[in-house]
Amino acid sequence: MEPGNHTNIPEFILLGLSEEAELQPLLFALFLSMYLVTFTGNLLIILAITTDSHLHTPMYFFLSNLSFADICFTSTTVPKMLLNIQMQNKVITYEDCITQMYFFVLFAALDNFLLTVMAYDRFVAICHPLHYMVIMNPKFCGLLLLASWVLSFVHSLLNALLVLRLSFCTDLEISHFFCELNQVIQLACSDTFLNVLVMYLASGLLCFIPLTGILFSYMKIVSSILKVSSAGGKYKAFSTCGSHLSVVSLFYGTALGVYLSSAAIENSRATAIASVMYTVATPMLNPFIYSLRNKDIKQALKGLVLIIIMNH
């Protein structure tokens, strides 16, 4: 393909995590098992919350939406990777690449906003317990969820539209297992200044502002908990937000680690391997964190299992 304005690119090449043939069956088995655990674990969380009336509260409402977002987040990348390994074909069409990139950015941003909303929910529950049901009423919770979806949609659509204006030339190999926004932009042979500017500015704002909100919420939460006189009260307060804090640490810690390391390390293959942590491992671990650290979820899951057994 000659350099020039080639907007309708037929295909990209996803190089994946490794090009060694003997590692492909291992990678397939590993990622298939991780995907199945992620899908099943998050689906069980959704079903448990839906079927147990005791969990029809704002905290679990947002948790069920986080589980849904995690299923979608992982489903944008892993199935295509598994298909490529199985078919021994690394090709992804231009249209599929843009679509995958759009939904990946969408659900990554949605995860980000939902974790922020959940931090605010814990802040209100612990710092303003008497006004909790008034503040976190169903209408307000619905508005928070809608705002999370709208902001994620706008952010993802903006980046996708800016990529569509780019021209691509000869080097169409992506050193990743999915169409990662930054790497797609780097393949363009037209001017990418606006793309890079918007990508870093929007991503920076969408990471900095929510993370600041989360940290502020937990500073207030810790301050309120320390004022509680009884040890039992402190434990109960910490236990209600311990799961969420663990998930926040895992999501932001791995995501920031990948992007900070990618800025320092030129090896994009190493960055791709590191990105597995927040794209696949974090959504897989979230259900375990919530089910192991939360008695209400444990009881709901036991009830769900009993219902399934009785129906069979």
Identify the strand order in the major beta sheet: 2-1-3
User: Could you describe the largest sheet, including whether it forms a barrel?
Assistant: 3 strands, mixed
Beta-strand proportion: under 5%
Structural class: mainly alpha
Number of helices: 11
- Give the strand tally: 3
- Shape label: globular
Distance between the termini: 58 Å
Q: Give the uncertain stretches in residue-range form.
A: 1-7
Q: List SSEs in N-to-C order.
A: EHHHEHHHEHHHHH
Instruction: Tell me, rounded to a whole number, the average pLDDT.
Output: 87
Write down the Rg: 21 Å
The proportion of residues forming helix, as a percent range, comes to: over 70%
Please tell me about this protein's structure:
- Helices cover 76% and strands 3% of the residues.
- The chain contains eleven helices and three strands, in the order E-H-H-H-E-H-H-H-E-H-H-H-H-H.
- The protein has helices spanning 24-51, 58-75, 78-87, 94-127, 132-135, 138-164, 181-186, 193-226, 231-264, 268-293, 295-311; strands spanning 11-14, 91-93, 173-174.
- Helix 4 packs antiparallel against helix 6 (138-164).
- It starts with 10 loop residues before the first strand and ends with a helix.
- The model is unreliable at 1-7 (pLDDT under 50).
